[in-house]
Each structure stands twice: as structure tokens, then as C-alpha cells.
């Protein structure tokens, strides 16, 4: 993995704070991508075998990759090594106001039905909290995706700045499918971020965004958040490193933050 100098980190952090996302081209070297790609393909093959009905119906992603359900100890350590790499640590330190906690991993792929529409959403809408709470928390909680593309893809379409502001009437109608609108409709003032193999897109889970399907989409998402009990309470303990797993992790900080918060909460 290539390094990111301090000037570039400052630039990325400024862009992220203003727009809610930032793209780092070619952060990963080809040798690292090859190893990671092999692990992700093994996971994906086993996940598809176990979730064929869900995939056929609607699935566009899987989660909990660092669990032992579909991967060996060695393969899980490949993922832990990437998640805990010191350059990922540098990016987290540049963006988060304080310590970051590990939250989850996801793998994004194309739906079985190539005509399946994509959809505008904010991750926060799936918490079940009332709109007033969601609106208030936009500026109070940080949940971050780091999306690494393993294949060139159309990427994401995002609404710049929406990570710190609530929807306009039009955006809300589309996102929540009110007034006869559909969540796959076009919105104004968006930006498409296409990704090449090895590119890393950092974006706020709070912002309005949608994936763009097509081509041969395969992207590994690393999710981090503020070390708050309400955010990490759903983290599977079996997805966290244990014992000798820590030997391959340069920066165990986000995992330790998650463990600390869960222990304090008694979960």
C-alpha cells in the first residue's frame, strides 16, 4: 500500500468535511490487491452458496466478512491486516474528531437482476429512529465507509454536503418514496464518483447516496464509527480479532475501542 503524506491527508480531510466524501486513487498496490481479491472471491462464493435465494431476490451486498462463517483463520487475518493497516489509521485520524471504532465489513456486488433499480438512502434511516432524531444526529455522530474497489466500476452517486444537512423536500420525497415518488429517481446536484481497481472512496454513511450497478462490481467496505455504545452494540463479537490475530494488525486501535465500549456496556 502506498503512503499518504501529511499535505495530502489535510487535503483529503478538508474535502471530506466539505463534501462528505473523498477519493484516493491507487492507494493499494497490485500485490496486495491480488491477495485481498482472492480472499474476497472465496468469501463471495461461499456466501452465494448459502444465500442463493436472497441473492436471486434482491441482494446487492453481504456483511460480517471477518466472521468465521465462510473464511479460514488465515483468510480472516488478511482482512484484519488491511483493516488495521497504519495507512488506514492515518486516514481515520485525519477525519475522525477522536478515536474511531470498528463497526463492520461489507462486500458490494451487482444484483442478480441487472435491471434491478438502485436507490437513494442514508444509512441512518435504517436505525428506526424518528426523523427528528436522525436529523439531530447528522452533526453529532460519525459513521464512515472506506470502500475499496477490486474492479473498475461505476461507483457511487452522492449528494455533496448532505452529510451535515437534512433533505430538501424533493430529496425526502424520493428517498422515502412519498407523494408518488420512487427512490430510484434522479436527483439534482449530485456527483458520480467512478472507481478504478485499487481506489479507495471515503464517504459518510449519513449522506444521501446510491450505488451504481453494472460492469463487474466488487467492492470491499470497511466501516468505522465513533466509539459509542449505540453504534457498536450490534457488532458481532465473532467478527473481532482474538489472540494471535492481533499479531498481524499494525493498528489495533479501532478494534480495541469497540471491545472497550462493549465491555463497558456489558454486551
Describe this structure as you would to a colleague:
The relative contact order is 0.21. The protein is of the alpha+beta class. The longest helix has 21 residues, at 30-50. The strands form two sheets. A six-stranded antiparallel sheet has the order 1-7-4-9-3-2. It is globular and about 55 Å long. The protein has helices at 6-19, 30-50, 52-57, 73-83, 86-95, 131-137, 169-175, 229-232, 253-265; strands at residues 21-24, 61-63, 101-109, 143-149, 153-158, 191-195, 200-204, 209-211, 218-225.
Question: SSE string, helix = H, strand = E?
Answer: HEHHEHHEHEEHEEEEHH
**Strand order within the widest beta sheet:** 1-7-4-9-3-2
CATH fold node name: Jelly Rolls
CATH architecture: Sandwich
Number of helices: 9
pLDDT < 50 runs, ≥5 residues: none
Strand content: 15-25%
Helix content: 25-40%
Give average pLDDT, whole number.
Answer: 95
Overall spatial form: globular
CATH structural class = Mainly Beta
Radius of gyration computed on alpha carbons: 18 Å
